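Minutes, project huddle
Topic: does the predicted pose make sense with PXL bound?
PN asked that the exact inputs be recorded in the minutes so nobody has to dig through chat later. Recorded below.
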Amino acid sequence: MRVLAINDVSCVGKCSLTVTLPILSACGVTCDVLPTAVLSTHTGGFDGYTFRDLTDDIPAILRHWKTLGLKFDFICSGYLGNIQQIEMVKSIKREFLAENGTFIVDPVMGDSGKLYAGFTDAYVEKMRELCREADYILPNVTEACYLLGIPYTDYSQTALYALANVCPRPIVTGIHEGNDILVSYLDENKTLQTYSSENVEGFFCGAGDVFASAFVGALANGKNERKAIELAASFATAAIKRSAWEVPDKRYGLNFEAEIFPFLQKLND
Ligand code: PXL
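Predicted holo structure (tokens), as shared on screen:
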């Protein structure tokens, strides 16, 4: 199995490609990368980070790949630096996704009700278009609300049905319900399903990337959607629980590494 991960390199802070690469490799899957930008850190809580936009490098990379006849079983997009890159991802899907391949979009745009630094309404609109081409989308609640054009406080489980008009298989992460945190999705019969785990206080920037990478790693290992969601959610939850007390400065990301082995044991059960 060959996966293409389109995402940024945040040099410090454990999100995007520094999370996806180790997790997919551990799952025994080839992970090729298309870096969208190089940042000194992610943008969630650090001041003064550098940002090198790699948009101009992408066309030559793709021309080279075309000469190699590359095709990918999975293409997964995450943090995209600008609107132009969203257009590029659309054409990458058309040119490089293998027949019967799976296109997964994590519409990385925001969290806790707010867009990340540098994102605009025009970007949200373009991201909605990209989501229309995906087999799966993996928004958190904030991103789901932006995709639907509804206020953050109005999110309810019915939003999932509205999201299904954008992409047939939406999976929404980070839904708070009482003391639990839920992942909700529509199964192949359009029935709402949830996976629930205990909520742990503390915000970690790369948690969505841990979930998305483990989900793809599980699908690439032949697990069905439900099993892949369970495995990915329990891995992300275990990493969050551990990091809530273990990591003093949350900006430096989850200690997901310590939970990789238990995750792999469950993956191989
Ligand atoms: O994981 C989300 C993410 C990805 N990439 C960059 C980010 C963030 C969240 O803040 O800043 C650069």
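Observations noted during the meeting:
- The mean pLDDT is 96.
- DSSP finds nine helices and eleven strands in the chain.
No decisions taken; revisit at the next huddle.
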